[in-house]
Design brief:
It is a single chain. By secondary structure, this protein is of the alpha+beta class. The protein folds into four domains: 142 residues, Calcium-transporting ATPase, cytoplasmic transduction domain A, CATH 2.70.150.10; 217 residues, Calcium-transporting ATPase, transmembrane domain, CATH 1.20.1110.10; 160 residues, Rossmann fold; 194 residues, Calcium-transporting ATPase, cytoplasmic domain N, CATH 3.40.1110. It is built from 32 helices and 28 strands. Helix 9 runs antiparallel to helix 24, helix 17 runs parallel beside helix 24 and helix 24 runs parallel beside helix 27.
Length: 912
């Protein structure tokens, strides 16, 4: 259908072509047929991996396949108990891996779907509200001010309709719509005044349209198809770990071959040594590492969702920890996106207005708005009447007599935010349009347009007709001949006009957007045209601003502590951007500059790259400027997060290291191009996501440290025993059991550990930093050596004390397990010891260690398991030796770190 040039056809022909009655809409049977034919009205997303393939994928590892083959051989040789036990361990490992990956997969699937808005349609002659996803071609869609258009439509009715299409076309001003056919089939999209497009929004008027395209057939869908990038990809960390895995496989293979060959040369049974080698290889290779990394990222994703940061691409989680620059839009992200009247100028007085957002609670300092003869009262009445916005609670229109409705619900507005702001200012004085209109009735309106820069309404009152006007101060003031004062109406001299404009300029310097209000009595026979705007009486100026979010001010402070540069990018004027940036703390004295879009046009890419680190605010920029800004920062080696909402922002969002889309105001196309979506459009959420990203990377380092040091301990235990001619301290089945008990639940529990204190007080890590940087490799080597030597020490002592081979192996087996279970608590921090971190500050880890302990005690004390795992019960002195050797390093390291950090004055003792 999209190949049809709908804009050149008369609307009746469009309705006929789509087989729909304009006054009745489609019938339900036809809706169901079309829905089945064209599908849901959504942008396509990639489906995840089927659970069956996820599970089977757990067995594709080479060493697991070797072990499965060995298990089959074992069964054929009659070792049924060993075969069943090894197979059970492999299946349990596979289930653990499956759960981890399934959780990560479902996390990403759920995060790709965002709640669709509703649509009003005409079906079978009745107006209905339906999910926008159920709209089909041929539906008659009804839209009003504030509504978002759910699909591509050809307008069949347009009453004072203006549509904000910047998200799709880049056109900064609302486009006036009509129903007349156009003559050129190749008319640019931005000039198709009889068309409406998915994702754009009505800012004025109302209308109806025939849906001509849905889903991926819409203009938004076409662009989505070009820029959509939802392919799953490995993070740089996962790629580095895969490379590490190859080396570990090679080294482990060589060590295991050495163990097997040495054992055979010493007369050990070939079958036994073969199984030992394979089991040791399985234990040495951290095959669970990719799954653990995946689940850590997925857990982090879930945490971020709770903080309103929706991660769409897993690489963003890792990259967040490296972010050095956050480029953010102003409106709604750094500010509240709720215009608020802060000052009113009337009768030569500056009147301050208190209150925040759309809540009609506040005070007026400098005048009494309730006095009828006070010009402020009149100014607020004009603000309420010359207005098409509506004050709401829970989405329900609220008049002055029903302010108690939904006391706990947030206030909101339907309509233009600027009109909403002055409507709220009037409500703060108890002046409500709904109440005023009981005594006077609107009979005409001259809507706002970009040429006239003003809006006028005409009301029938008991005293006769009256015109109320609001608009740009310079445009309104030139039409005024008089001024309303407390003494009555006086002539407006040129000197007085200059005085009013000086007041306007002063308000503008404080980043206030200013509107002038005026009135005029009319004769009954006077025509309702622009003549009613001549000879007006000036009443006042209303100055409003979109105030900064309190959370954004705090978040910017955190950014600076974390070594991250906050940058504001806005389409607003330079003065407004500069004032808000100072209030937010983005601009501080001489630090950081302000550059306008016009200056950017005159600046080459090379010059911009050289200056970029000295600029903190970009004002009056276009979407294409954002792409240049991102590239300039990246050229300087910065890791950039960039926010965007419109389709034209998608290139910059995609170019950024971390593309951030707005969840409330962003288009679906921008969300598809982004790495992360803000559920609340709040700058503080980006900073919170950076904090989570750093914490997730730290957690990944924690269990890499844990897994590799434990695996190193296992390999050293077997290798050194073989090297010095000792009997094998562990049997193959015991090696596999150690791998299951220690590498499973405890490692997973590390992935949900909380962030270190002061994580946002350190600079961002470098993107190319090795996972083993900052001394991690030495920590792994030292602790792995301790685990291996400690296990061998217990084994040798047991033999020396006359303990039989069964008991000695049980002691070595148990020492190896408990050494790793103690070590997992050390891995929770790279700077603090177990006594500072606290044992009970991660209850998941405590639970995991308890389960692993119970499992290990079971194989020692449960008779049937003793037979399978070749163990024997231990007595008191054996337990004392095991616990001292296994837990000694953790206790000593914990005390050493406590003393060191106390000496340096940075100890933080965790609660619990």
């Amino acid at each position: 259908m999209r190949q049809q040039a709908w804009h050149v056809l008369p609307w009746l022909d469009v309705a006929k072509a789509l087989d729909v009655h304009p006054a009745k809409g489609l019938n339900l049977k036809e809706v169901r047929r079309r829905l089945q034919e064209v599908g849901k009205n959504v942008l396509a997303v990639k489906k995840g991996t089927h659970p069956v393939f996820l599970f089977l994928g757990q067995f594709k590892d080479f060493m697991v396949l070797v072990l499965l083959a060995a298990t089959v051989v074992s069964g054929l040789l009659g070792e049924i108990a060993d075969a069943i036990t090894i197979l059970a361990i492999l299946i349990i490992n596979a289930i653990l891996g499956f759960v981890q990956e399934f959780r990560a997969e479902r996390s990403m699937e759920s995060l790709r779907s965002l709640t669709a808005p509703e649509a009003r349609v005409l079906r079978e002659g009745m107006e209905q509200r339906i999910p926008a996803t159920d709209v089909v071609p041929g539906d008659i869609v009804l839209v009003d001010t504030g509504d978002r258009i759910p699909a591509d439509v050809r307008w069949i009715q347009a009453v004072n309709m203006q549509v904000e299409e910047s998200a799709l076309t880049g056109e900064s001003h609302p486009v006036t719509k009509s129903i007349s056919p156009l003559h050129d089939e190749f008319t640019p999209m931005a000039d198709r005044q009889n068309m409406g497009y998915m994702g754009t929004a009505l800012v004025n008027g109302r209308g109806a349209g025939v849906v001509v395209a849905t889903g991926m057939d819409t203009e938004m869908g076409v662009i989505a198809g070009m820029i959509q990038s939802v392919e799953d990809e490995e993070t740089p960390l996962q790629k580095r770990l895969a490379e590490l895995g190859k080396w570990l496989v090679l080294i482990s293979f060589l060590v295991c071959v050495a163990v097997v060959v040495t054992g055979i040369l010493r007369g050990e049974d070939f079958y036994k040594m073969f199984f030992t080698g394979v089991s040791l290889a399985v234990a040495a290779i951290p095959e669970g590492l990719p799954a653990i990394v995946t689940v850590a990222l997925a857990v982090g994703v879930q945490r971020m969702v709770k903080r309103q940061a929706i991660i769409r691409k897993l690489p963003a989680v890792e990259t967040l920890g490296c972010a050095t620059v956050i480029c953010s839009d102003k409106t709604g992200t750094l500010t509240q996106n709720e215009m608020t009247v802060r000052q009113i100028y009337s009768d030569g007085r500056r009147i301050s207005v208190s209150g925040e957002g759309y809540d009609p609670k506040g005070e007026f300092q400098g005048a009494d708005p309730e006095k009828e003869r006070d010009p402020l009262n009149t100014a607020l009445k004009i603000a309420a009447l010359c207005n098409n916005a509506t004050l709401t609670k829970k989405g329900v229109q609220v008049a002055g007599l029903f302010r108690s409705k939904g006391k706990d619900a947030p206030w909101g507005i339907e309509g233009d935010p600027t009109e909403g702001a002055i409507l709220v200012a009037a409500a703060k004085a108890g002046i409500w349009r709904e109440v005023l209109e009981r005594k006077q009735k609107r009979i005409g309106e001259l809507p706002f347009d970009s040429d006239r820069k003003r809006m006028s309404v005409v009301y029938e009152t008991k005293q006769g007709r009256k015109a109320y006007v609001k608009g740009a101060p310079d445009m309104v003031l030139r039409l005024c001949q008089q001024e309303l004062t407390r003494q009555g109406i006086v002539e407006l001299s040129n000197e007085r006009k200059r005085s009013i404009m000086r007041a306007n300029d002063e308000m503008a310097r404080h980043a206030l957007r200013v509107l002038a209000v005026a009135e005029k009595p009319l004769a009954d026979a006077e025509p309702l045209d622009e003549g009613v705007e001549q000879g007006l009486t000036f009443v006042g100026l209303l100055g409003m601003i979109d105030p900064p979010r309190v959370s954004a001010v705090k978040a910017i402070r955190v950014c600076r502590q974390a070594g991250i540069k906050p940058v504001m990018i806005t389409g607003d004027h330079r003065l407004t951007a500069e004032a808000v940036a100072h209030e937010l703390g983005i601009l501080r004295g001489e630090n950081g500059g302000v550059v306008s879009g016009a200056e950017l046009e005159r600046t080459s890419d090379q010059e911009l790259s050289e200056r970029i680190m000295d600029i903190s605010v970009f004002a009056r920029v276009t979407p294409k400027d954002k792409l240049r800004i991102v590239r300039a920062y990246k050229k300087r080696g910065q890791v950039v997060a960039m926010t965007g909402d419109g389709v034209n922002d998608a290139p910059a969002v995609k170019e950024a290291d971390i593309g951030v889309a707005m969840g409330k105001t962003g288009t679906d196309v921008t969300k598809e191009a982004s790495s992360m979506v803000l559920g609340d459009d709040n700058f503080a959420t980006i900073v919170a996501a950076v904090e989570e990203g750093r914490g997730i990377y730290d957690n990944i380092r924690k269990f890499i440290r844990y897994l590799l040091s434990c695996n190193l301990g296992e390999v050293l235990t077997m290798f050194l025993a073989t090297l010095v001619g000792l009997p094998l301290p562990l049997l193959p089945i015991q090696i596999l059991w150690v791998n299951l008990v220690t590498d499973g639940l405890p490692a997973m529990a590390l992935g949900v550990d909380g962030s270190e204190p002061g994580i946002m007080n350190r600079p961002p890590r470098k993107p190319g930093e090795s996972i083993f940087a900052r001394g991690l490799a030495s920590k792994i080597a030292v602790r792995g050596t301790f685990i291996g030597l400690g296990t061998l020490f217990v084994f040798v002592v047991a033999l020396f004390m006359g303990v039989n081979m069964l008991g000695a192996r049980t002691m070595a087996f148990t020492t190896l397990v408990f050494s790793q279970l103690f070590h997992v608590f050390d891995c929770r921090s790279e700077e603090r010891g177990i006594f500072e971190v606290g044992v009970f500050t991660n209850l998941y880890l405590v639970g995991a260690v308890c389960i692993s302990t119970i499992m290990q005690l079971s194989v020692i004390y449960v008779a049937p398991l003793q037979v399978i795992f070749k163990t024997t019960p231990l007595v008191s002195w054996q337990w004392i030796l095991i616990l001292c050797v296994a837990g000694g390093p953790s206790v000593l390291i914990g005390f050493a770190r406590l003393l060191k950090n106390s000496w340096q004055g940075k100890t933080v003792i965790a609660k619990g």
